[in-house]
Design brief:
alpha+beta; single chain
């Protein structure tokens, strides 16, 4: 945490489940920035398990407050190949 009590930006603010245009499930993750801005990132169903394992969590709410970089699984998979 930084001195002002906010985690370093960008960080995960929240999440919700949604359906993709193909009818698949996906996890929408809200990314917050210290300037007050926010963006949503969609994690496809096939990648959710990889994100959760990479973050070392079992519940989506355990992602809240963590750095957005735990969502960057593609770079990790390629580095480990």
């Amino acid at each position: 945490m930084m001195a002002d009590g906010l985690p370093p930006a960008p960080h995960i603010l929240g999440f919700r489940l949604t359906a993709t245009h193909d009818g698949e499930s996906a996890l929408l993750v809200e990314i917050g920035f210290q300037d007050g801005g926010a963006s949503w990132v969609q994690i496809d169903n096939d990648d959710v398990v990889t994100v959760m394992r990479s973050a070392g969590v079992r519940r989506f709410d355990e992602l809240i407050g963590r750095s957005w970089t735990i969502l960057r699984i593609r770079n990790r998979e390629q580095a480990n190949a």
